[in-house]
Design a protein that fits this description.
Elements lengths: L7 H11 L3 H10 L10 E6 L2 E7 L4 E6 L7 H13 L3 E6 H6 L1 H18 L9
Parallel strand pairs: 3-4
Antiparallel strand pairs: 1-2, 2-3
Length: 129
């Protein structure tokens, strides 16, 4: 599956990788290097009109961390999620403080999603906070 994006987002996504939040850095340390069930994730990946926190193309899975930058933007986040889902992608969302305080729980949710995906060879329901 080829994912298209606006070329101007590529430079911006590189900058975002340099300025990750603590939660993004903590989760990236676990996701990188195919550490979760052998799947490759990318960080700050441009998709369509957006840059998502983490993306696995094989699973068609977007992982987003909602923090201060998302405060007061729930309608925009909802529209963004709908547009990404219209591309055939699934999304897992976690609050920033959950990643900081319970990274193991976050990883368990991701692993459970992957296990369901593998069992059904289809996309399980989205998990949103």
């Amino acid at each position: 599956m080829k994912i298209y994006y606006k070329p101007r987002l590529k430079t911006f996504s590189r900058e975002l990788r340099k300025k990750g939040t603590l939660s993004e850095v903590l989760l990236w340390d676990i996701l990188k290097g195919k550490k979760i069930k052998g799947y490759q994730f990318m960080r700050q990946k441009p998709i369509g009109d957006y840059i998502v926190d983490f993306f696995c193309s094989k699973l068609k899975l977007v992982i987003e961390i909602d923090g201060i930058s998302h405060d007061g933007k729930s309608e925009g986040d909802r529209i963004r999620q709908q547009k990404l889902e219209s591309l055939g992608l699934s999304m897992l969302r976690f609050y920033e403080w959950d990643v900081k305080k319970d990274i193991r729980g976050v990883v368990q949710v991701i692993e459970s999603w992957i296990e369901e995906f593998e069992r059904n060879n289809k996309t399980p329901k989205n998990t949103t906070p």
